[in-house]
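## retry 2 of 3
previous attempt timed out at serialization; input unchanged, resubmitting
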Amino acid sequence: MLLPAIYLGLTIGLYEAILLHRDVSIPTHRFGHMFHALIFAMIAVFASMNVDFVLGAIPALQSIPLINNPLIFRIAIALVAMIKMHAVSSAAPGMAGGTVGMKEKWSHSFIIAAAIVAAPYVWPMIEPLVGFLPGI
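## retry succeeded, writing output
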């Protein structure tokens, strides 16, 4: 499911970019964060929608308890994504060591993480609506 993962990843990444635009008040960082959000969202959604492929491609993951359960694996991906999104948004230091205008809200990170987990479950419902897209 490569193209569905790309389409949903782009959609989730664009949504994250919109949320980042609200949260990030430093204009020079917006484009970089938007591009980073799009790429990472596509990778996370691909992993969420292709659990068997990812587990087969990275055999070390199979030794981790409970990770063979697809839902647990998707939740783990979402937790990593949520922490990564929040950490990246607060990586640029401001004055006095603070991060002035850079932190993405935890609620926004949680919404994106939930969308990553839900992507493989939502796709069968929206697939008939987006049948006009190439490769569907």
